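Q: Start with the shorter request: fold the first protein.
A: Done. Sequence, then structure:
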Amino acid sequence: MVESPMMRRMMGADASDELAKLVLDEFSFKIRAAAESSKKGLSAQDVQGLIDDIMEKGRDKTLVNFQHKFEEILREHERDIWDRTRTRPFERVLIQRFCQLFPAEGELDQGNGMVSRRLIPGFLKTVEQMVGFEQCERFRRDCKDLINRLKDDDVDHFRWYDIYDNRTANALVDEALAAAALTFDAFDKRITWLLFTVNAQLVTAEYYAFEGEKVESWKLDRPGLVAMLKALYAPLAKQAKKASGRTDIERRYGMRSAAAIGHLLMRLDDETK
């Protein structure tokens, strides 16, 4: 099998070897079967005939098997990316808030409001730019310290997904979002900037080919971004519905941030009316 540099970068040598083995196994099976049924042995011409037969009759089956293995490796690659983000738990809790918008296999083609995982690095970068590098570094340190404490308390039963519902971790995300809300005073300009910046930093489409055929041409659009922002701010929106909740938001983040959150939530609601 001819292996492109892109595939080698994307999957690594072990995964590439698996794909090569898949093709070779298919061919060797045909060779063994032919050899066992032949009384005279196989000539060079016989072997060439088998190759031609595989290319003509077995090509579709081989390609289907190849595609299944390839998609399996891509999913493993995604899991590896997520595993590595465990060293950045703050970002993982942040992304978890809108992960329901990520498509399952082939779902991106259905046009049902899904957003591709290709946006993750670029979106995290925009959050850092809106919130500020030093502030984000503090949130990261605090989140890592939290995880270390949780592990120390009960290392045998600690699970990474426990952090998603942790009040302290989510309070750190809310604090970051409160700071980010201050940058939405000119709502339309901020939306335009986010779309441009995220789309300029999309991850290579091959990493997420399993999402659907449209992944290569996919771009984050305004409805998708609004859906992400609404999911991110959903806990604050729920809290802001009650007078006591609004008072608590003002107490925690200050009057200016509280007003910015209220303005942003109103604009997001207007977008979906």
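Q: Next, the second protein, separately.
A: Sequence, then structure:
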Amino acid sequence: MDLGVDLETTYSAVAAMEFTLRRERNLLVDLDSTILHIPMAEVARACKPLIDRTIETMEPLSSLLNGANSDIAGIHLVGGTTSLPIVPRRLRELCGRKVHRSPHPTPATAIDLAVAADADTLGIGDRLSRGFGVFRETESGGGIEFDVLVLTDQTTRLAGTTIITRKYRCRHNIGVFRFVEFSRTDAIGEPVGDLIPPRYRRSPPLDETLQYSSAEFDADQVEVQEINNGHVIEETYTILETGMITATITDVDTDWSITATKGRPTTSTGTGRA
């Protein structure tokens, strides 16, 4: 199907149009006296060269985003055309789960202009767009509960570095930490909504023999055992102004620790007992 439309000259106009998606996957464009029905497959095919050109322009940023030591937490999509499914889909192919939809995509530019005009009066500040927590075992492994470490809402502001700690005595020789990002929680505190599954899993050794073994530690090769009078464990979560979260799990009794930052290699350190 040939739309007979010069996308170069109408791209900005299309961005200003109000459109909705029907179940039959059509794009409805209101042209005053006429409503144009365009199959989404045709829209995607026609827009792809423009989207590819935009992605090519973003290449320096995407390289930083996907770097092992990147401090860029993610990309937030703004503007009406980000409602086109092909836009977030193509960006996620390039940047993975670090692509997010802005909570106010259409008026984002107007909001930014208002902030630039009178930032002091508006009192604008950064805030977390997603919550962060960890699933924990309870009742000696008989149950599981979710521990909300960072709850995102309109009042969760980022000002400097935020540190959150947890301290307890361990019950097993190996710890299992399943970290989850989420958009909100339900009435009982469970993560729901836009939920990223437990992909940040860490299984550190909580036994001194395993911590300082000459062999490389592999949790899958070690039997999990319940222990009496286990070591005191301290968890420290550091949230930077950029939104990056670093987790450090420390065995207080042996000074052994392991540190992990989302998207970066895990490191461990310790000197052991004298």
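Q: Describe the second briefly.
A: The chain has two domains: 7-122, 131-269. Helices lie at 7-16, 40-57, 59-65, 86-95, 108-117, 119-122, 208-211.
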